[in-house]
Amino acid sequence: MKAFNLKAAVACVASLAMVVGMAGCGRTGSTSESASDVTTIDDSKASGNLTIWAMGNEGDLLGDFVKEFEEENPDVKVTVTAIPWSSAHDKLQTAIAAGNGPDVAQMGTTWMADFSNAFSQVPDNFDVSDFSSGPLEAGQVAGKQLGVPWYVDTRVLYYRTDIAQEAGWDHAPKTWDEFKQLASDMKKVDGVEYGVYQGPSGTDCFIGMLPYAYTAGAELTNSDQSAWTLDTDAMATALDFTSSLYSDGLANVNADVSAGANIANFVSGNTPMMLEGPTAVSQINELGGEGFADKYATVELPAEQEGGTATSFVGGSDLVVFKDSQNKQAAWKFIQWASKPEVQAEWYKLSSDLPASQQAWKSDDLTSSDKLTAFGEQLKNTMAPPALPTWAQVSSVADRVVEQIDKGQLSVADGLKQLQSEADGIGVGA
Fold first, then answer.
1. CB 3.0-4.6 Å disulfide test: which of 26, 58, 273, 412 passes with 159?
2. Quick one: which of 384, 387, 388, 385 has its CA closest to 428?
């Protein structure tokens, strides 16, 4: 695993009213553990009061789900607070500043560096061997494992098998050349306007091309994460390829990038290939209706060359324990419980979140879905964005530069030179 080297800073700019409001969501009462760090999780049952913050859909579902943990640990009382993603970042800042954070929190992987000074290190005897390297690295900051993968999100290739068959294909593309050829051949089928969807602009269009960059061998920083390394041959190779999708007429450079537009075009057959995450499965099946699941497949991403391996982007959420938690033993025992393969498989059934546990992928609910198999395989080859506090700023700059390259306003060489210069000016936040 890569080592991370940074000193995260947390900006605390919230009002007193918000501080007071969040106090009710934090820990209540004295608990069984002091605020000292836990380096070893003991064998006793969890006890005392335990507060957990979770965001979005996970926050809505977790309150009932933790009852099993309470049944296994009858002396612990778990309180789950659900927080909307839209306000979570600010509320975390406020709570940390006021010392009113929870014991455990769900943490988006791209936020790990933002709040890393507030997290405890994963204990020495916490077994992380069931997690693949990509998700684990997403929870590392400054060479320390601060987060434990809870659920993961990665990108695979979705393609319309019925349209591919009309185009004379009976298999998925294995290489970039085959990928382009399939896009070209499907474009000739009636009703198909573009062979593949690739986000040409807007927020996260840079993340959308990162699987190609990772597959080409790109590293976004140097080995100790002291500098950005964006103007590289590998990044140029990836951008040469993705920008050629537009210049060759295989992807729409003016595509609608609003939420769900790519799903609608995939279902209509207008654009029968795309890179997407796991939530697209249910969206496609709902929009396509009965029987539509038989008209498409999900497969691992194509490699750059025959015999190679494709590396995809990985995101998701970690579980973290706060330094000022008064019940770290119970906090880590909860995360141990949430990391069990059987618990992760049950959580998938409830939430549709893909398990971080590799063993969980052997459960019947996951092995029985032909659409999820590709995700389980792709998770073995993933990379996370760097856990740096300036990642959001650099990613935003990259979105703008990639859009200019896609639209032919900048050459790949000039675009990468500009991106590197602006990233150097922003720095890594260390």
1. 273
2. 388
Give the C-alpha distances (Å, rounded to integers) separating 371 from 40, 180, 211, 291, 377. 39, 22, 19, 14, 11
Which distant-in-sequence residues (6+ apart) come within 8 Å of 429 by Cβ?
6, 7, 8, 9, 113, 388, 389, 390
Q: Give me the chain's average pLDDT, please.
A: 91
Pick from 91, 79, 89, 119: which is nearest to 23 by CA? 91
Q: DSSP labels for 109-167? A: GGGTTTTGGGBPPPPTT---TTS-HHHHHHTEETTEE--EEEEEEE-EEEEEHHHHHHT
From its phi and psi, is residue 6 left (phi > 0), alpha (psi between -120 and 50) or beta? beta
What's the average model confidence in pLDDT over 109-128? 95
Task: Read off φ and ψ for residue 52, nearest 5 degrees.
Answer: -130, 135
Report which of 304, 307, 297 is spatially closest to residue 375, judged by C-alpha positions: 297
Nearest residue to 201 (alpha-carbon basis) of 402, 415, 410: 402
Distance in angstroms (rounded) separating the CA atoms of residues 120 and 327:
12
pLDDT tens-digit profile of 134-145? 999 999 998 899
Identity of the residue numbered 426? I
What domains are defined for the chain?
29-152+316-375 (3.40.190.10), 156-312+386-425 (3.40.190.10)
